[in-house]
């Protein structure tokens, strides 16, 4: 697996420069996260300043006041523990299926990263407790719904902190969850008792949407590489033409993503001799019907432009989420070199909400492209002599990939139904204190669901490209696939045999879809991608 620069050995070290999205994915998939000495020092200094302010009886939101519209109530230091405990209790109202273990780990890592900036006033003990739970793989059960992404992700974070306090459930090492209090006791961890600003600092930030979005960005980048590789496979089996993929098009239209896709696609087919060949000439006075267009359909011809635009959207998404991952996103903050507490709105998740919606559009676009590639391979009028639905044996009696194509159509419909943007769905709440909200976590979750659907579409595409390659090789039609496409064929055949007689394909589609989505798969190490 290709992890980030902070990965050393079998762990990720959180230093002052923060985490990369690759680091976040590594932690989400199980690597421990270690706080560096410089990070611990910054956190302690910030907490010491907060302690001094409390001794000076300063008014600090959520520490010496009530919450939200109740901030007009001043709360004395004698009630500090109750104030923090009650915050977690009243916010633990999530509903719905729990977040996945990967998304919850990403959320925890994102919160640790934000607090490690040293602007929040959290105690090192509180941050250490969250980090220990992450590294022991003691992952709280977090309902997926209930946050509007405006005062941060209060509800999901409250369930995480509540589990640290012994409430709710914790799953240990990916096993069936048990009562949080019992799991913590078995691990030798004392129940967390938040004081000062600990509870508020832990819940009041954009870490759920940021963590999930970070995982989405990595998954989308992987899906883009799969899309490019499969597109190269289609070019091989459909005798596509190299001309449209010439890098000159990228030079005169220098979008970075388009230029990247010109490089990728040409590298992925560079070993082939016959695919993407341009040999037609025109003699003076001729009027000759060639029988086919000398230009490929847009799904092949415009692949650098289509997937290039997707690539640029992924880059923008990842840049935005990467900044958010390494930002202080709570309220109030304790800025450096200022002897005061600042009250504001860094918890407001609009950046990530917009980025998630933009990524969702890019993911759906990859789905549209995959479905069109699949449809062309199935159609004997369009697939350059391949059998209908890629079934040469007893057509009519046997139907090949006919059912799989219908499933692909249904998957794309499922994706389009989820196309409504979340970032424009503001609903005033919290007694009109939160009179505008972002719904950023809903957007990030929605994009994750779209990526799951896309993995199934790409799996069907991969099975069909492999089938078409086998048929071309069998008929000795002059197709000599490039190295990358040959690797694709071998990769698919390790997971699913060639389709000879009709058989159920659901399990094979699911198996390939899971493999497509995993880090460290074929496209993460294939020569041709930069």
From TrEMBL:
CDD domains the UniProt entry points to: PAL-HAL (cd00332)
Which one of the record's GO molecular function terms can you name?
ammonia-lyase activity
Gene3D superfamilies of this UniProt entry?
A: Fumarase/aspartase (Central domain), Fumarase/aspartase (N-terminal domain)
Keyword Transmembrane in record: no
Provide the alphabetized UniProt keywords.
Answer: Lyase
**Does the keyword Protein biosynthesis feature in the UniProt annotation?**
no
**Any single Pfam family the record assigns to this protein:** Lyase_aromatic
What the entry lists under InterPro entries is as follows:
Aromatic_Lyase, Fumarase/histidase_N, L-Aspartase-like
Name of the protein this chain belongs to: Aromatic amino acid lyase
């Amino acid at each position: 697996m290709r992890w980030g620069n902070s990965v050393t050995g079998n762990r990720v070290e959180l230093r002052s420069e923060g985490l990369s999205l690759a680091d976040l994915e590594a932690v989400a998939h199980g690597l421990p996260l270690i706080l560096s000495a410089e990070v611990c020092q910054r956190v302690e200094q910030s907490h010491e300043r907060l302690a001094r302010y409390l001794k000076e009886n300063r008014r600090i939101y959520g520490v010496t006041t009530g919450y939200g519209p109740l901030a007009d109530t001043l709360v004395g230091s004698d009630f500090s523990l109750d104030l923090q405990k009650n915050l977690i209790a009243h916010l633990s109202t999530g509903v719905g299926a729990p977040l996945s273990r990967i998304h919850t780990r990403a959320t925890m890592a994102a919160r640790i990263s934000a607090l490690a900036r040293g602007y929040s006033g959290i105690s090192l003990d509180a941050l250490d407790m969250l980090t220990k739970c992450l590294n022991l793989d003691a992952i709280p059960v977090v309902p997926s719904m209930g946050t509007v992404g405006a005062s941060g992700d209060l509800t999901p974070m409250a369930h995480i902190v509540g589990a640290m306090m012994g409430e709710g459930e914790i799953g240990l090492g990916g096993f069936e969850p048990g009562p949080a209090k019992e799991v913590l006791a078995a691990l030798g961890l004392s129940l967390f008792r938040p004081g000062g600003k600990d509870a508020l600092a832990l819940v009041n930030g954009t870490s759920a949407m940021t963590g999930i979005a970070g995982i989405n960005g990595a998954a989308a980048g992987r899906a883009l590489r799969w899309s490019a590789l499969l597109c190269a496979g289609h070019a091989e089996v459909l005798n596509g033409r190299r001309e449209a993929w010439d890098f000159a098009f990228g030079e005169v239209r220098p979008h970075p993503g388009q230029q990247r896709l010109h490089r990728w696609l040409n590298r992925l087919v560079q070993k082939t001799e016959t695919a993407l060949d341009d040999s037609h000439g025109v003699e003076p006075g001729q009027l000759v019907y060639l029988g086919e267009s000398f230009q490929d359909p847009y799904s092949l011809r415009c692949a650098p432009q289509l997937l290039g635009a997707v690539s640029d959207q992924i880059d923008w998404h990842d840049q935005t989420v990467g900044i958010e991952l390494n930002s202080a996103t709570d309220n109030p903050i304790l800025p450096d070199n200022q002897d005061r507490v600042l009250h504001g709105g860094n918890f407001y998740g609009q950046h990530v909400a917009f980025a998630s919606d933009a990524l969702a559009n890019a993911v759906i676009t990859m789905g549209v492209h995959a479905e069109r590639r699949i449809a062309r391979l199935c159609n004997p009028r369009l697939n350059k002599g391949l059998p209908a639905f890629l079934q040469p044996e007893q057509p009519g009696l046997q139907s090949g990939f006919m059912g799989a194509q219908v499933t692909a159509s249904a998957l794309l419909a499922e994706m389009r139904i989820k196309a409504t943007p979340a970032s424009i769905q503001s609903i005033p709440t919290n007694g009109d204190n939160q009179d505008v909200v972002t719904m950023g976590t809903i957007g990030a979750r929605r994009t994750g669901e779209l990526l799951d659907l896309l993995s199934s579409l790409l799996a069907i595409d991969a099975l069909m490209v492999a089938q078409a390659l086998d048929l071309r090789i069998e008929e000795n039609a002059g197709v000599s696939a490039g190295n990358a496409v040959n690797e694709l064929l071998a990769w698919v055949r390790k997971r699913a045999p060639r389709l000879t007689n009709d058989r159920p394909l659901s399990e094979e589609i699911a198996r390939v879809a899971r493999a497509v989505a995993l880090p460290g798969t074929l496209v993460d190490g294939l020569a041709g991608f930069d």
